[in-house]
Amino acid sequence: MITMLTILYPVLALFMIFVNVDGKQTCLAPKEKTIIKTIRNSMQQLNSQITGLEDSLKLTVKETSGCQKGWTRYRNHCYFFGLNKLDWFEAQRYCHKHGSTLAKVDDATENAWISAKTNELQLHDVFLLWLGGSDLKDGQWIWMADFSPFTYVNWHKGSGEPNGGTKENCLNLLNYQKYKGTWNDLPCGDKILYLCKKNLRCDCNSKKTSN
Ligand SMILES: [Ca+2]
Ligand SMILES: [Ca+2]
């Protein structure tokens, strides 16, 4: 677009000079006026298109700065919302394959961001999202990203989560309309959506595969 403008401006200027220096055409004929009007309208349209492109580019850079295509940045991490349904192990393998792990949620602010993001993705209705917590090992809930125990938790209280005992050992985020962002334990073999997370600009353990 910018290249087109840099061409159009000189062309228009030359046209104006030509019209003015030609002794036989001191006044613009209706045809020339129409041409100039058309060019001016085209340039205005180009300008507004460029403004729109600049705005969307700024938004994209701000949103994905430092993260791969398809990943979204929040603070110093990149997130991938897996919108195909996998069981917890399959989802963890997918994340590992892309240099990440199922998401460890560090605090309420991050949890709120994830929940809000799911709304942006228009996942308003019933859905569940695997996170990277599990009590598979010895009944204690830990984050598989670093094997640390949960500090921040956001279990859904209404149904007494985690309520699955030894049958439900994997963590997911609930986004039923009224349960937004609260946590639930589920059988790890259930197939649901998932969330991968990795450090910004960290390609460690990443195999060279496309997203
Ligand atoms: Ca359990
Ligand atoms: Ca449960």
UniProtKB/TrEMBL annotation:
Keywords of the record: Coiled coil, Disulfide bond, Signal
Residues in coiled coil: 36-63
Residue ranges occupied by any C-type lectin domain in the UniProt entry: 74-197
Domain of life: Eukaryota
Gene3D superfamilies registered for this protein in UniProt: Mannose-Binding Protein A, subunit A
Signal peptide: 1-23
Pfam families associated with the record: Lectin_C
PROSITE patterns given in the database record: C_TYPE_LECTIN_1, C_TYPE_LECTIN_2
Entry-linked InterPro entries: C-type_lectin-like (IPR001304), C-type_lectin-like/link_sf (IPR016186), C-type_lectin/snaclec_domain (IPR050111), C-type_lectin_CS (IPR018378), CTDL_fold (IPR016187)
PANTHER family tied to this protein: MANNOSE, PHOSPHOLIPASE, LECTIN RECEPTOR RELATED (PTHR22803)
Name of protein: C-type lectin domain-containing protein
